[in-house]
Amino acid sequence: MIAIIDYGAGNVKSLQFALTKENMDSCLTTDPKRIQNSKAIILPGVGAFNDAMETLHKLGLIEVLKQEVAAGKPVLGICLGMQLFYETSYEDGSWDGLGLLQGEVSRISSSVKVPHMGWNNITQEKESPWFTSITDNAYVYFVHSYAVSSFREETLLASTDYGGKVPAIVQKDNITGIQFHPEKSGTTGMQLLQNFGEMMS
Q: Is pTM, for the whole model, over 0.90?
């Protein structure tokens, strides 16, 4: 069972539907026990960074997430969920994130239209089981105004070009962050979710 953390930040139903389509059992939850008993965790999200952190704090989920990561459980962050993994975000101020990954989140360059919304291709930076049956430069669907702006180079699995190099998939040990929305990214997105399932088993 995959625990999708349902903390009110985005349409989690479409993500759950996509997982069900790939025969992956999931539940929408904020219950620490269900999260602890899960096989893997997905932290989704759209919206404001600080609001999301405050909600996670109020629900008592920040420590739960950190404990599960420390225990080696696969944890996947999608869109805002990926950004929350980092130390700091400069979205309307300066805010502390979960600090699971080293780096910062900043507004996308004003040299391009913000938000970055629509289909863009991703360049695979290194080999990974995440890319099983996925071609390089595959197109995926993005919706975001902020992006990871500083990060450890060795964590970068895939990038996209939008006003500069934007991390699209990052990974450190059992933590993976995906900036785009797999559930809206057609066959490529579905294959990514399937690969996640394979890596869990």
A: yes
